[in-house]
Hints:
In chain A, 70% of the residues lie in helices and 2% in strands.
Amino acid sequence: MGLLSFFDEAFFVVLFGTSLRASTPLLLAALGETYTERSGILNLGIEGIMLSGAFGGFVVALFTESILCGFITGVLIGLVLALITGFLTITLRVNQIVVGLGITIFGSGMTSFLFRILFGTRFPTLPVMATKMRIPLVADIPYFGEAIFNQHLVVYLALALIPTLHILLYWTNFGLKIRAVGENPVSADAAGVNVARVRHICLLLGGMLAGLGGAFLAIGDLSFFVSNMTLGRGFIAIAIVMLGKWNPYWVLLGAILFGVTQSLSSGLQVLGVDVRPEFILMLPYVAVIIALVFIARNTFLPSALGVPYRRGEG
Amino acid sequence: MRWTIFRFLLSGTLLLGPTLVGRSGALETPCGGPLRVAIILPASRADQGWNQQGADSLESLKKKWCLTIEIAENQGYGDIKPVIRDLADKGFNLIIAHASGYQTTAPEVAAEKGVRVVTIENAKAVKPGLVSDIDTEAQGAAYLAGIAAGKVTRAGIVGIVVSAEPPTWNRMSAGFMEGLYSVRPDARLLYNVIGDAAYEDAAGGKRNVEAQIAAGADVIFGQGDGASFGMMSACSENKAKDGGKVWFIDVIGDKRNIDKKGILLTSVLFDYAPIYEQMFINIYIGTFGQEHVLNVANNGVRLMDFHPDVPQYVKDSVENARQGIVSGKIKVSNIPDSTGLKTFRARLFPR
C-alpha cells in the first residue's frame, strides 16, 4: 500500500483516458457550434439539444438494444431541434437568445417529463456493451497509448472531425461562404451566396453534433439517463468555442483543457493533495477563465453573430 | 394538568384514528379534516435516493392519513420561495422543504405566509406552530457500513465519494471512517468530492470512482443522489487491481433492482415515514414546531440486507456493533461540518 504517484502508469492511463472520454460530448457540441457561430447564428439551445439527444438516444438504444440506433436517434433529434431553431431564428428572425434559451428549457422539461411517462420511478440501464476499440501497436505506447487508442468509436470520430471540419471551413469554397455570411451577410448576398441556406446548413450540422454529443454522454460514457444530466455542458461548449477562436484545432485544445483539469481534480484528491477540495474543484473553471483572458483577448467575434439577416435591410 | 391529560387523550385518539379508518372504512378522515401536504424536491423523485425516499415516505402515509399530496420535483437548489408561496396559496397545511439547501428560504416564507414548513438540518429555525426540522443522524448506520467495508476489503484501500459536503453527508463520512478504523486501522482511505452541489453529476461520480479504483480501492462508499448512478456504473464496469469485484455501498435508497453485476454490498437506508407521522400528530394536537432526529436507535436509519456473498462473520460483526450503538456502548462521532471532517480524517487515516 505504498503511496500512489501521479506517474503510476495505470493511474495515469485512467485519468487521461477518462478526461478524453469526458471531453468528447463537449468537443462534439463545440465543433458544431463553431460552424453555427461562424455563420452568424448564436445557438444557446445546444444544452437542450444535447439533453434531448441523450434522452432519445438512450431510449432507442434501450428498446432496440443497439447503440448504433441510439446514436443515430441522437443525431436525428439534434437535426429536428436545429430545424425548429433555424425556422424561428433565420426564417422568422426571432431573437436568437430567446429561442436558444427556449430550446434549452424545452429540452430539460420535456426529457424529464417523457422519462417519467415511459419509466415511472423505475431506473433502466443499458447492458454493458463492448464499445471500446483498441488500436494495436499505438495502444502499446507507454502512458498515452492506452489512454488515447483504447476508446469508444465516437471518441475517434470526434477526433477525426477536427481536421475534416478545419479543412472544410478554411480550405474550401463552402467554408469561405460560411465565414462570409458570418462576417458580412450583405456582401455575401451580393456575391451570390444564399445566406439563409448557408446558415441553415451550419445550424443543422451544429444540432446533429450536439445531439450526438448528448447521446454519447448517455450511451457511451454512462449507460443510463438522468434528468438534466448534461449539467451545463452546452454552455461550457459555447465558452470553449470562444476560447478556441472558432477554430476546430483550438476548440479541441479548449475541450481537452477542460476535461483534463476535471480529471486532474479527481486525481489530485485521490493523491491526497493537502488543499481544500473546493480549491481543486474550481481548477477546470479557473483554467478556462485564465485561458480566455490570455488566449481570447484578441478574439474578434464574427461580425454578424446574433444578427438576423433579411435582404434589403442590411 | 388538564391540558396535558387532554393532549394525551387526543394523541391516543389520533394514533388509533387512522387504524380505525383503515379497518372500518366508515370514517373518511381522522379527526375531522384531512391534511394537505406538499413536498418540494430539488431533483427527480425517481432518483432512487434522497428525493425518492422523501416522496415515497410521504406517499406511504397517504391512505392511512387520508392525505392530499403534492410532489413538486426538480425544483433545483436555487430560490424556491415562489414555489412555497404558491403551495401556501393553494391551501396546503404542511410543506416539506426536502433539501438542506432550502433551510433558510423555507422558514422565511413560513413567517411571511403563516404556513407550516419542514426544514432539513436547520434546528435553529424551529419555531412552535410554524417550523419543524429533521436532522438525519445517519452516522451510526454509516459506522456499521464502515465495519462491513473494513471486513470485505482485500486491498485495504477504501474510497468515499461524495457529491457535496452537506451535514448529512459529512456525518455519514465521519461515521463510516470511524467504523472502518475500528476494524482496519491500517487501511488507506481515499476521499473525493465531486463538486459544490454535484448531486446529479453522474458523469462526475463515475470519473471520481474510476480514479479511486485505479488507485487500488476495492470498496467504495458513495453518497450522491443522481451521481450515485455514475458511481455504481464505475464499480460495475471496472475490476479491482486484484481482478476481483469492486464493492459499492450506497446511501438512502435501495438500488438492488438495477444491480446487474452484484456489486452492491449494502446501503444506508433512510425512512422518513415515522417522523412525518409524528409531525401530523403534532399538527393535530398543536405541538408542531419541533426538532426531529432520524437515527439508528429509532430505526430511522439502518443498513439494507447484505449481498448474499457476504460471509456470516461480517454480518455478525455489524449486528454486534448495531447493538452496541443502540445500547449506548458505542458512541459514534457526530461531525456535520467539512472542516471538522477533514481534521477527523487526518487523525484517523493520516497519509
